[in-house]
Design brief:
With about 325 residues, the protein is α+β, with helices and mostly antiparallel strands. About 25% of the residues lie in helices and about 25% in strands. It is globular, with a radius of gyration of 19 Å.
Length: about 325
Protein backbone atom coordinates (compact mmCIF):
# COMPACT_ATOMS: atom_id res chain seq x y z
CA UNK A 1 0.00 0.00 0.00
CA UNK A 2 1.26 3.49 -0.85
CA UNK A 3 1.21 5.91 2.09
CA UNK A 4 1.22 9.64 1.49
CA UNK A 5 3.94 11.73 3.07
CA UNK A 6 3.10 13.10 6.52
CA UNK A 7 -0.42 11.79 6.03
CA UNK A 8 -2.83 13.87 8.10
CA UNK A 9 -5.78 12.41 9.93
CA UNK A 10 -8.58 11.66 7.50
CA UNK A 11 -10.71 14.38 9.09
CA UNK A 12 -8.21 16.94 7.75
CA UNK A 13 -9.29 15.96 4.23
CA UNK A 14 -12.78 17.21 3.23
CA UNK A 15 -15.31 14.37 3.09
CA UNK A 16 -18.00 13.93 0.46
CA UNK A 17 -21.07 11.73 0.28
CA UNK A 18 -20.07 8.39 -1.20
CA UNK A 19 -21.42 7.90 -4.75
CA UNK A 20 -24.61 5.87 -5.07
CA UNK A 21 -25.23 3.54 -8.05
CA UNK A 22 -27.91 5.91 -9.29
CA UNK A 23 -25.47 8.82 -9.40
CA UNK A 24 -23.79 7.63 -12.58
CA UNK A 25 -23.98 9.93 -15.59
CA UNK A 26 -26.31 7.86 -17.75
CA UNK A 27 -26.68 10.60 -20.37
CA UNK A 28 -22.98 11.25 -20.87
CA UNK A 29 -22.29 12.26 -24.48
CA UNK A 30 -19.90 9.94 -26.31
CA UNK A 31 -18.24 11.31 -29.45
CA UNK A 32 -16.30 9.33 -32.04
CA UNK A 33 -13.65 11.75 -33.30
CA UNK A 34 -13.31 9.77 -36.52
CA UNK A 35 -17.01 10.22 -37.34
CA UNK A 36 -18.18 12.84 -39.88
CA UNK A 37 -20.73 14.01 -37.32
CA UNK A 38 -18.10 14.71 -34.65
CA UNK A 39 -18.02 18.55 -35.00
CA UNK A 40 -21.74 18.97 -34.39
CA UNK A 41 -21.78 16.35 -31.63
CA UNK A 42 -18.84 18.01 -29.87
CA UNK A 43 -20.41 21.47 -30.07
CA UNK A 44 -23.68 20.11 -28.69
CA UNK A 45 -21.92 18.35 -25.80
CA UNK A 46 -19.93 21.49 -24.95
CA UNK A 47 -23.07 23.63 -24.94
CA UNK A 48 -25.05 21.19 -22.77
CA UNK A 49 -22.42 19.83 -20.39
CA UNK A 50 -18.98 21.33 -21.07
CA UNK A 51 -17.80 17.73 -21.04
CA UNK A 52 -17.81 14.58 -23.15
CA UNK A 53 -16.23 11.19 -23.59
CA UNK A 54 -14.04 10.86 -26.67
CA UNK A 55 -13.50 7.61 -28.56
CA UNK A 56 -11.90 7.04 -31.95
CA UNK A 57 -9.19 9.47 -30.85
CA UNK A 58 -6.24 7.56 -32.28
CA UNK A 59 -3.97 7.63 -29.22
CA UNK A 60 -2.34 4.16 -29.21
CA UNK A 61 -3.51 2.00 -26.32
CA UNK A 62 0.03 0.79 -25.70
CA UNK A 63 1.19 4.41 -25.26
CA UNK A 64 -1.50 4.98 -22.63
CA UNK A 65 -0.68 1.72 -20.85
CA UNK A 66 3.06 2.37 -20.97
CA UNK A 67 2.66 5.76 -19.31
CA UNK A 68 0.29 4.35 -16.69
CA UNK A 69 2.78 1.60 -15.89
CA UNK A 70 5.65 4.07 -15.48
CA UNK A 71 3.48 6.35 -13.32
CA UNK A 72 2.56 3.44 -11.04
CA UNK A 73 6.25 2.56 -10.76
CA UNK A 74 7.15 6.15 -9.84
CA UNK A 75 4.47 6.48 -7.16
CA UNK A 76 5.43 3.10 -5.66
CA UNK A 77 8.88 4.43 -4.76
CA UNK A 78 9.92 5.16 -1.20
CA UNK A 79 8.54 8.50 -0.04
CA UNK A 80 11.99 10.03 0.40
CA UNK A 81 12.79 9.26 -3.25
CA UNK A 82 9.56 10.89 -4.44
CA UNK A 83 10.13 13.91 -2.24
CA UNK A 84 13.40 14.57 -4.05
CA UNK A 85 11.30 15.27 -7.17
CA UNK A 86 9.42 18.07 -5.39
CA UNK A 87 8.07 20.44 -4.42
CA UNK A 88 5.49 21.08 -7.14
CA UNK A 89 6.07 24.85 -7.20
CA UNK A 90 5.96 25.51 -10.02
CA UNK A 91 6.65 21.97 -11.30
CA UNK A 92 7.52 18.66 -9.71
CA UNK A 93 6.13 16.21 -7.14
CA UNK A 94 3.41 17.15 -4.69
CA UNK A 95 1.53 15.30 -1.96
CA UNK A 96 -1.84 16.28 -0.46
CA UNK A 97 -1.40 20.03 -0.86
CA UNK A 98 -2.89 21.42 -4.07
CA UNK A 99 -1.46 24.83 -4.84
CA UNK A 100 -0.48 27.42 -2.25
CA UNK A 101 -3.87 28.51 -0.98
CA UNK A 102 -4.83 25.81 1.51
CA UNK A 103 -6.53 23.22 -0.72
CA UNK A 104 -5.79 19.61 0.18
CA UNK A 105 -6.80 16.24 -1.21
CA UNK A 106 -6.14 12.53 -0.83
CA UNK A 107 -3.61 12.36 -3.65
CA UNK A 108 -0.04 12.71 -4.79
CA UNK A 109 0.92 14.03 -8.19
CA UNK A 110 3.45 15.21 -10.72
CA UNK A 111 2.92 18.63 -12.31
CA UNK A 112 4.97 19.02 -15.49
CA UNK A 113 5.71 21.74 -18.04
CA UNK A 114 5.35 21.05 -21.76
CA UNK A 115 7.14 22.77 -24.64
CA UNK A 116 5.57 22.11 -28.04
CA UNK A 117 5.02 18.32 -28.03
CA UNK A 118 7.28 17.12 -25.20
CA UNK A 119 8.34 17.81 -21.64
CA UNK A 120 10.18 21.07 -21.20
CA UNK A 121 13.95 20.73 -20.87
CA UNK A 122 13.63 23.14 -17.96
CA UNK A 123 11.50 20.54 -16.14
CA UNK A 124 13.98 17.91 -14.83
CA UNK A 125 11.24 15.80 -13.22
CA UNK A 126 10.96 12.89 -13.64
CA UNK A 127 14.61 12.01 -13.98
CA UNK A 128 13.99 8.42 -15.16
CA UNK A 129 14.67 8.26 -18.91
CA UNK A 130 12.09 5.49 -19.49
CA UNK A 131 9.37 7.49 -17.69
CA UNK A 132 10.25 10.65 -19.65
CA UNK A 133 10.13 8.73 -22.92
CA UNK A 134 6.67 7.37 -22.06
CA UNK A 135 5.50 10.87 -21.14
CA UNK A 136 6.83 12.38 -24.37
CA UNK A 137 5.24 9.66 -26.50
CA UNK A 138 1.85 10.18 -24.88
CA UNK A 139 2.03 13.99 -24.78
CA UNK A 140 2.87 14.17 -28.50
CA UNK A 141 -0.14 11.97 -29.31
CA UNK A 142 -2.66 13.67 -27.02
CA UNK A 143 -1.58 17.15 -28.13
CA UNK A 144 -2.55 16.22 -31.70
CA UNK A 145 -5.92 15.06 -30.40
CA UNK A 146 -6.41 18.37 -28.59
CA UNK A 147 -5.81 20.26 -31.85
CA UNK A 148 -8.27 18.02 -33.71
CA UNK A 149 -10.90 18.51 -31.01
CA UNK A 150 -10.48 22.30 -31.09
CA UNK A 151 -10.79 22.27 -34.88
CA UNK A 152 -13.95 20.18 -34.59
CA UNK A 153 -15.30 22.68 -32.05
CA UNK A 154 -14.65 25.54 -34.46
CA UNK A 155 -16.33 23.65 -37.29
CA UNK A 156 -19.32 22.83 -35.08
CA UNK A 157 -19.66 26.53 -34.21
CA UNK A 158 -19.31 27.61 -37.84
CA UNK A 159 -16.04 29.45 -37.25
CA UNK A 160 -13.59 30.00 -40.11
CA UNK A 161 -10.82 29.17 -40.31
CA UNK A 162 -11.23 25.96 -38.34
CA UNK A 163 -7.79 26.56 -36.87
CA UNK A 164 -8.97 29.68 -35.01
CA UNK A 165 -8.96 27.84 -31.68
CA UNK A 166 -6.36 25.13 -32.26
CA UNK A 167 -3.77 27.70 -33.36
CA UNK A 168 -3.77 29.12 -29.84
CA UNK A 169 -2.58 25.80 -28.41
CA UNK A 170 -0.30 24.92 -31.34
CA UNK A 171 1.43 28.31 -31.45
CA UNK A 172 5.04 28.73 -30.38
CA UNK A 173 5.08 29.62 -26.70
CA UNK A 174 1.66 28.15 -25.96
CA UNK A 175 1.24 27.46 -22.23
CA UNK A 176 0.75 23.71 -21.83
CA UNK A 177 0.80 21.69 -18.64
CA UNK A 178 0.69 17.96 -18.00
CA UNK A 179 -0.40 16.37 -14.75
CA UNK A 180 -0.18 12.80 -13.44
CA UNK A 181 -2.38 12.17 -10.39
CA UNK A 182 -2.32 9.18 -8.06
CA UNK A 183 -5.14 8.65 -5.56
CA UNK A 184 -4.14 5.85 -3.13
CA UNK A 185 -6.92 3.79 -1.51
CA UNK A 186 -8.35 5.66 1.45
CA UNK A 187 -8.50 2.58 3.65
CA UNK A 188 -9.09 4.57 6.84
CA UNK A 189 -12.72 5.09 5.79
CA UNK A 190 -13.34 1.55 4.56
CA UNK A 191 -15.85 -0.38 6.62
CA UNK A 192 -16.71 2.51 8.94
CA UNK A 193 -20.20 2.88 7.47
CA UNK A 194 -19.95 6.64 7.36
CA UNK A 195 -21.39 6.98 3.88
CA UNK A 196 -18.56 9.39 3.18
CA UNK A 197 -15.52 9.38 0.90
CA UNK A 198 -12.37 11.47 1.09
CA UNK A 199 -11.96 14.29 -1.40
CA UNK A 200 -9.25 13.35 -3.87
CA UNK A 201 -9.29 16.63 -5.76
CA UNK A 202 -11.77 19.33 -4.78
CA UNK A 203 -14.37 20.85 -7.08
CA UNK A 204 -13.02 23.33 -9.63
CA UNK A 205 -13.03 24.36 -13.26
CA UNK A 206 -9.93 24.30 -15.45
CA UNK A 207 -8.68 27.76 -16.48
CA UNK A 208 -7.20 26.73 -19.86
CA UNK A 209 -9.04 26.21 -23.16
CA UNK A 210 -9.54 22.50 -22.65
CA UNK A 211 -8.18 19.48 -20.84
CA UNK A 212 -8.00 15.85 -21.95
CA UNK A 213 -8.01 13.18 -19.26
CA UNK A 214 -7.28 9.48 -19.32
CA UNK A 215 -7.45 7.26 -16.22
CA UNK A 216 -7.11 3.64 -15.21
CA UNK A 217 -10.19 1.52 -14.52
CA UNK A 218 -10.92 3.03 -11.10
CA UNK A 219 -13.86 5.43 -10.94
CA UNK A 220 -13.87 8.65 -8.93
CA UNK A 221 -14.35 11.51 -11.40
CA UNK A 222 -17.56 13.51 -10.93
CA UNK A 223 -18.98 16.48 -12.81
CA UNK A 224 -21.67 19.00 -11.90
CA UNK A 225 -24.53 19.22 -14.42
CA UNK A 226 -25.14 22.73 -15.71
CA UNK A 227 -28.93 22.69 -15.45
CA UNK A 228 -29.31 21.84 -11.76
CA UNK A 229 -25.80 21.55 -10.32
CA UNK A 230 -26.28 17.86 -9.48
CA UNK A 231 -23.08 15.88 -9.09
CA UNK A 232 -22.89 12.74 -11.22
CA UNK A 233 -20.17 10.08 -11.37
CA UNK A 234 -18.42 9.43 -14.66
CA UNK A 235 -18.03 5.71 -15.44
CA UNK A 236 -14.37 4.88 -16.02
CA UNK A 237 -13.10 3.78 -19.43
CA UNK A 238 -9.41 3.03 -19.83
CA UNK A 239 -9.57 3.29 -23.62
CA UNK A 240 -11.32 6.67 -23.85
CA UNK A 241 -10.34 10.27 -23.25
CA UNK A 242 -12.56 12.69 -21.34
CA UNK A 243 -12.67 16.30 -22.52
CA UNK A 244 -13.37 19.29 -20.26
CA UNK A 245 -14.23 22.77 -21.50
CA UNK A 246 -12.05 25.30 -19.66
CA UNK A 247 -12.76 28.86 -18.53
CA UNK A 248 -10.83 30.43 -21.41
CA UNK A 249 -12.91 28.56 -23.98
CA UNK A 250 -16.07 29.72 -22.22
CA UNK A 251 -14.95 33.31 -22.74
CA UNK A 252 -13.84 32.76 -26.34
CA UNK A 253 -17.32 31.42 -27.15
CA UNK A 254 -19.03 34.19 -25.11
CA UNK A 255 -20.63 31.60 -22.86
CA UNK A 256 -21.97 29.25 -25.54
CA UNK A 257 -19.59 26.62 -24.19
CA UNK A 258 -19.44 26.56 -20.40
CA UNK A 259 -16.53 25.27 -18.37
CA UNK A 260 -17.45 22.20 -16.35
CA UNK A 261 -17.09 22.01 -12.59
CA UNK A 262 -15.56 18.67 -11.63
CA UNK A 263 -13.93 16.84 -8.71
CA UNK A 264 -12.48 13.46 -7.77
CA UNK A 265 -13.68 11.26 -4.92
CA UNK A 266 -11.03 8.94 -3.51
CA UNK A 267 -11.80 5.21 -3.60
CA UNK A 268 -11.57 3.31 -0.31
CA UNK A 269 -10.22 0.13 -1.92
CA UNK A 270 -8.54 0.88 -5.25
CA UNK A 271 -5.88 3.25 -6.52
CA UNK A 272 -6.81 5.70 -9.25
CA UNK A 273 -4.18 6.98 -11.70
CA UNK A 274 -5.04 9.73 -14.14
CA UNK A 275 -3.06 11.77 -16.64
CA UNK A 276 -4.31 15.11 -17.89
CA UNK A 277 -3.16 17.36 -20.71
CA UNK A 278 -4.07 21.04 -20.29
CA UNK A 279 -3.99 23.14 -23.45
CA UNK A 280 -3.56 26.86 -22.93
CA UNK A 281 -2.56 29.76 -25.20
CA UNK A 282 0.59 31.86 -25.02
CA UNK A 283 0.82 34.20 -22.05
CA UNK A 284 0.20 37.29 -24.17
CA UNK A 285 -2.85 35.87 -25.97
CA UNK A 286 -5.88 38.12 -25.63
CA UNK A 287 -8.88 36.19 -24.35
CA UNK A 288 -12.13 37.68 -25.65
CA UNK A 289 -15.19 36.38 -27.53
CA UNK A 290 -14.43 35.55 -31.15
CA UNK A 291 -16.07 38.23 -33.34
CA UNK A 292 -17.68 35.56 -35.53
CA UNK A 293 -19.70 34.36 -32.55
CA UNK A 294 -21.12 37.76 -31.64
CA UNK A 295 -24.45 38.39 -33.28
CA UNK A 296 -25.62 41.83 -34.36
CA UNK A 297 -25.75 44.03 -31.27
CA UNK A 298 -24.47 41.26 -29.02
CA UNK A 299 -22.01 42.38 -26.37
CA UNK A 300 -19.17 40.50 -24.80
CA UNK A 301 -20.10 39.06 -21.42
CA UNK A 302 -16.52 39.48 -20.22
CA UNK A 303 -13.88 42.12 -19.74
CA UNK A 304 -10.86 41.67 -21.99
CA UNK A 305 -7.83 40.02 -20.45
CA UNK A 306 -4.72 38.13 -21.46
CA UNK A 307 -4.05 34.53 -20.58
CA UNK A 308 -1.23 35.71 -18.31
CA UNK A 309 -3.63 37.95 -16.36
CA UNK A 310 -6.20 35.19 -15.98
CA UNK A 311 -3.64 32.57 -15.07
CA UNK A 312 -2.24 34.75 -12.28
CA UNK A 313 -5.75 35.41 -10.94
CA UNK A 314 -6.69 31.72 -11.14
CA UNK A 315 -3.66 30.48 -9.27
CA UNK A 316 -4.17 33.01 -6.48
CA UNK A 317 -7.67 31.65 -5.85
CA UNK A 318 -8.98 28.59 -4.04
CA UNK A 319 -10.02 25.60 -6.13
CA UNK A 320 -13.75 26.10 -5.66
CA UNK A 321 -13.80 29.84 -6.37
CA UNK A 322 -15.72 31.18 -9.35
CA UNK A 323 -12.63 32.57 -11.05
CA UNK A 324 -14.50 34.09 -13.99
CA UNK A 325 -16.76 36.12 -11.72
CA UNK A 326 -14.10 38.86 -11.48
CA UNK A 327 -14.04 39.18 -15.27
CA UNK A 328 -17.79 39.31 -15.94
CA UNK A 329 -18.90 42.57 -17.53
CA UNK A 330 -22.00 44.37 -16.38
CA UNK A 331 -24.27 44.49 -19.40
CA UNK A 332 -25.81 47.75 -20.52
CA UNK A 333 -29.62 47.71 -20.92
Amino acid sequence: MVVLASTPAVDHIPLLRSPDPGDYFAGMPVVDLSSPGAPRAIADACERFGFFKLVGHGVPLNAMERLESEAVRFFAQAQEDKDRAGPAYPFGYGSKRIGLNGDVGWLEYLLLAVDNASLSAACPVPSCAVFRAALNEYIAAVRKVAARVLEAMAEGLGIAPVSALSAMVAAEGSDQVFRVNHYPPCTALHGLGLGRSATGFGEHTDPQLLSLLRSNGTSGLQIALHDDGQWVSVPSDRDALFVNVGDSLQVLTNGRFKSVKHRVVANSLKSRVSMIYFGGPSLGQRIAPLPQLLGEGEQSLYKDFTWSEYKKAAYKSRLGDNRLAHFHKLQQP
